[in-house]
């Protein structure tokens, strides 16, 4: 088994400290999420951090023998988006463990912990003011060549300063596309990219028209942005309906056996 550890050097945190944080046992109280991936909160040399361990099925282990691990992508994307002037919790480092044949057995990403509220809660707390500020933020992202492919209400964190400015932070970074500097995200990708951050059509309508106006798009393009969201919702509903029907069919078949 070969272990690779990369540290950003943030606040002097070393590779050895990253190894300890990534491998030591953690309590149930420190656990933030336990699904396919496991996320917990701990401390390294006085720095409050989040440790994210990416789960990997047997097929995934083989795939990531030739692909960059999610932990490494998260680390490198965080560095890049911060370089381009956007905010994401400070990347601390990552660890990979690979078996012979470069088979990925595990990968762990560590970043600084932030307590900012979710985008959904910020919309509820601040209304149209926050929605329009978020539209301006996404316009900046797209013009800077950044496409976060899981841009949902929990992967954007929000803090409002004393002077009323909103700071939007991106987390869960392993699914992104970053174009070379000076290249914007293609417009058709932009429309699809903003289809999942809210289920509230009223919120989306406010966002869509502000986004279109800030992009200098012709009148009526707010409806185009809005339609992209409605199309996504329809595909999601149809997929869930099919999966639910398949689940019922399998359940009924098992019941007959």
List keywords for this structure.
257 residues; alpha+beta; six-stranded antiparallel β-sheet; 8 helices; 11 strands; 24% strand; globular
What does the overall shape look like?
globular
> Helix count, per DSSP?
8
Overall number of strands: 11
Helix content: 40-55%
Structural class: alpha+beta
N-to-C SSE string, H for helix and E for strand: EHEEEHHEEEHHEEEEHHH
Largest sheet: 6 strands, antiparallel
Summarize model confidence as the mean pLDDT. Answer: 88
Strand line-up of the largest beta sheet: 1-5-6-4-3-2
**Ranges with pLDDT <50 over ≥5 residues?**
none
- Cα-atom Rg, whole angstroms? 20 Å
The proportion of residues in beta strands is 15-25%
Structure explained in plain terms:
This protein has helices at residues 15-23, 58-63, 70-83, 119-126, 128-143, 187-193, 201-214, 221-256, and strands at residues 2-7, 31-34, 38-44, 47-54, 91-99, 103-112, 117-118, 146-148, 156-160, 166-170, 176-178. With 257 residues, the protein is α+β, with helices and mostly antiparallel strands. The strands form 3 sheets. Strands 1-5-6-4-3-2 form a 6-stranded antiparallel sheet, with helices on both faces. The protein has a 3-stranded antiparallel sheet with strand order 7-9-10. A two-stranded antiparallel ribbon has the order 8-11. It is globular, with a radius of gyration of 20 Å. It starts with a strand and ends with a helix.
């Amino acid at each position: 088994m070969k272990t690779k550890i990369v540290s950003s050097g943030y606040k002097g945190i070393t590779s050895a400290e990253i190894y300890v944080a990534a491998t030591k046992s953690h309590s149930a109280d420190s656990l933030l999420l336990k699904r396919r991936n496991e996320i917990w909160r701990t401390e390294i040399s006085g720095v409050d951090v989040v440790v994210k361990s990416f789960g990997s099925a047997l097929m995934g282990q083989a795939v990531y023998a030739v692909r960059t691990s999610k932990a490494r992508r998260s680390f490198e994307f965080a560095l890049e988006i911060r370089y381009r002037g956007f905010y994401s919790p400070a990347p601390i480092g990552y660890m990979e463990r690979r078996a012979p044949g470069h088979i990925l057995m595990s990968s762990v990403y560590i970043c600084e912990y932030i307590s900012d509220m979710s985008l959904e809660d910020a919309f509820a707390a601040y209304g149209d003011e926050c929605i329009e500020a978020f539209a301006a933020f996404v316009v900046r992202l797209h013009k800077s060549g950044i496409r976060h492919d899981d841009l949902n209400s929990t992967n954007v964190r929000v803090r409002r300063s004393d002077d009323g400015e909103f700071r939007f932070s991106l987390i869960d970074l392993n699914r992104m596309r970053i174009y070379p500097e000076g290249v914007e995200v293609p417009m058709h990708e932009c429309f699809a990219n903003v289809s999942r951050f809210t289920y509230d059509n009223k919120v989306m309508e406010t966002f869509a028209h502000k986004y279109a106006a800030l992009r200098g798009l012709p009148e009526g393009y707010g409806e185009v942005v809005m339609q992209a969201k409605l199309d996504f919702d329809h595909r999601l509903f149809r997929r869930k309906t099919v999966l639910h029907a398949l689940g019922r069919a399998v359940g009924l078949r098992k019941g007959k056996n």
